[in-house]
């Protein structure tokens, strides 16, 4: 199969076509992350090829199973991970904006982990340096996006949220 210039390359697994996350999509997700991180006064992230590969492989697995659950790599603490699913083709900006919108549920006066804010806190975690992005479509046209972070954020040790999830600057 020869990729066309307007469509990213894809490969087939059973009856599911899995497009490979384009460099443009990954860079869009990275840019939005870094725009938000700048608001919080934390250093920008860099894309990492190894994290991109792992995120892409996992996005393809999610598109095949159509079950949105965190990977064993993330459960084992080897990386941080944000996941997104939509019934349509998501833009990188849409995905990152949805994750960041959890800031409305975060209490900077009472910092810590919550399942309602974990995507947001992973995005702006000060000590995270690198990220990877993967995206795949399921046979029904829905899309799965995986972002991986290294080192992982959302570390629940005392003081870690205060040090790593800074309020936005005025």
UniProtKB/TrEMBL annotation:
Alphabetized PROSITE patterns for the sequence: CRISP_1
Bilayer-spanning residue ranges: none
Gene3D superfamilies referenced in this protein's UniProt entry, alphabetically: CAP (3.40.33.10)
UniProt signal peptide: none
Keywords: Coiled coil, Golgi apparatus, Lipoprotein, Membrane, Myristate
UniProt keyword annotation of Hydrolase present: no
InterPro entries (alphabetical): Allrgn_V5/Tpx1_CS, CAP_dom, CAP_sf, CRISP-related, SCP_GAPR1-like
Domain SCP: 24-157
Membrane topology: Lipid-anchor
Subcellular location: Golgi apparatus membrane
CDD domains: CAP_GAPR1-like
Pfam families in alphabetical order: CAP
Assigned protein family: Belongs to the CRISP family.
Subunit structure: Homodimer. Interacts with CAV1.
Name the record gives this protein: Golgi-associated plant pathogenesis-related protein 1
Taxonomic source organism: Geospiza parvula
Primary gene name: GLIPR2
């Amino acid at each position: 199969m020869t990729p066309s210039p307007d469509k990213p390359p894809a490969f087939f697994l059973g009856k599911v076509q899995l497009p490979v996350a384009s460099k443009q999509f990954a860079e869009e997700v990275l840019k939005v992350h870094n725009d938000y991180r700048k608001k919080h006064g934390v250093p920008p992230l860099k894309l990492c090829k190894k994290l991109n590969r792992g995120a892409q492989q996992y996005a393809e697995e999610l598109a095949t199973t159509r079950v949105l659950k965190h990977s064993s790599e993330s459960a084992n603490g080897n990386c941080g991970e944000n996941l997104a699913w939509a019934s349509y083709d998501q833009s990188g900006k849409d995905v990152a904006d949805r994750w960041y919108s959890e800031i409305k549920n975060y209490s900077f006066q009472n910092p810590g982990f919550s399942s309602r804010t974990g995507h947001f806190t992973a995005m702006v975690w000060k000590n995270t340096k690198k990220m990877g992005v993967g995206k795949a479509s399921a046979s029904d046209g829905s899309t799965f996006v995986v972002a991986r972070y290294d080192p992982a954020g959302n570390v629940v040790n005392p003081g870690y949220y205060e040090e790593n999830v800074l309020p936005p600057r005025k």
